[in-house]
Specification:
alpha/beta, 5-stranded parallel β-sheet, 7 helices, FMN_Rdtase-like_dom, Flavoprotein-like_sf, NAD(P)H-dep_reductase, FMN reductase
Length: 180
């Protein structure tokens, strides 16, 4: 069974990106995956500082790195902050990468963004793709940009726009089939 994790780069209450990550988990489970949502608020890490690498590192960084290293695929949803990914997500990637467990070397990564604007977080997705590629991740070709966040989901927490929903299904297929 394919093991897939989903993460949101936002820990804000009622986060649209967490909603997208949860939706992807449901769709992946419907396809037979062992899919789970990881809430980054359960992995509190200090601001990355190389001096801390020589001291006692946060245990949760090692725990998260182990979880990611065991996954076949990972979906990351990140809001766009000032044209980029969130500080929370960048800090998490930095800590996990420095655990030296190959957390980004095995899985296929899918990326998505829900944004309040019509550009659907495309700048954040571009930066996220760049950061993930620098740490050795294989990124699925379909990037899932979801614009107009307040109207993006219907009452069943599914994507309201059928074209965007079709892209989500394409990404689900890629996460289920693309392997290293």
């Amino acid at each position: 069974m394919t093991k897939i994790l989903a993460i949101s780069g936002s820990i804000r209450k009622d986060s649209f990106n967490a909603k997208l990550a949860h939706m992807m988990v449901r769709h992946l489970r419907a396809r037979g995956a062992d899919a789970a949502y990881l809430d980054l608020s359960n992995f509190e890490m200090p601001l990355f500082n190389e001096d801390l690498l020589r001291e006692e590192q946060p245990k949760c960084a090692l725990e998260l790195a182990n979880l990611l290293a065991q996954a076949d695929a990972v979906f990351i949803a990140s809001p766009e902050y000032n044209g980029s990914l969130t500080p929370l997500l960048k800090n998490t990637i930095d800590w996990v990468h420095h655990q030296k467990l190959g957390a980004f070397a095995k899985a296929t990564f899918g990326i998505g963004s829900v944004s309040s604007g019509s550009l659907a977080g495309i700048m954040a997705l571009s930066h996220l793709r760049d950061v993930l590629s620098k740490v050795g991740a294989l990124i699925a070709p379909t990037a899932l940009g979801v614009g107009m966040a307040a109207r993006a989901f219907n009452e069943s927490d599914e994507l309201a726009d059928q074209r965007v929903a079709a892209r989500a299904e394409a990404l689900v297929n890629e996460l289920m089939t693309l392997k290293r």
